[in-house]
Amino acid sequence: MATILVLNGPNLNLLGQREPAQYGFTTLADVEQLCTDAGKRLGFEVTCLQSNHEGVLIDAIHQAGRGVKDGSVLGVVLNAGAYTHTSIALHDAIKGAEVPVIEIHISNVHAREAFRHHSYISPAAAGIVVGFGVDGYVLAIEGLVRKFHKS
């Protein structure tokens, strides 16, 4: 059974307590359970990782790329948090690892501050889910499976 990697970037460990008007009261543990359940329903194992450190996310993307090549990984669902708007390194990792990535944002970043309107991840992503709250993770997993699973 192939694995789907769900990566969460900086400050997403604070879900449920950080700006609940923007992000709601759902915790990261709740999100991870939601993703695991969605994966199981679709016949995939889901592995979740959160880090506040860019290099850890890059290493995980590199490893996922190797997994895509050997068939053990289907792809990545990535909420890069603020790194979305700053990290050329994450963009380069996605391109270099040749890993299918679905970019996800809990809030509608385009309805927020202007600096959030640009994503370095989007040009490297296979798809983007924005503004559906934590349900966007399920939509991203479903989209990844529909687009890349060869049944």
Automatic annotation (TrEMBL):
Subunit structure: Homododecamer.
SUPFAM superfamilies, per the entry: Type II 3-dehydroquinate dehydratase
Gene coding for it: aroQ
Record-linked HAMAP family: AroQ
PANTHER family xref list: CATABOLIC 3-DEHYDROQUINASE
GO BP: amino acid biosynthetic process; aromatic amino acid family biosynthetic process; chorismate biosynthetic process; quinate catabolic process
Site (Transition state stabilizer): R18
Residues annotated to bind substrate: N79, H85, D92, I106, S107, R116
Domain of life: Bacteria
Record's catalysed reaction(s): 3-dehydroquinate = 3-dehydroshikimate + H2O
EC numbers on record: 4.2.1.10
Gene3D superfamilies linked to this entry: Dehydroquinase, class II
Family, per entry: Belongs to the type-II 3-dehydroquinase family.
Name of this protein: 3-dehydroquinate dehydratase
Residues at the active site: Y23, H105
Keywords, ordered alphabetically: Amino-acid biosynthesis, Aromatic amino acid biosynthesis, Lyase
Pfam families xref list: DHquinase_II
TM spans (from-to): none
One MF annotation (Gene Ontology) recorded for this entry: 3-dehydroquinate dehydratase activity
Pathway: Metabolic intermediate biosynthesis; chorismate biosynthesis; chorismate from D-erythrose 4-phosphate and phosphoenolpyruvate: step 3/7
Function statement: Catalyzes a trans-dehydration via an enolate intermediate.
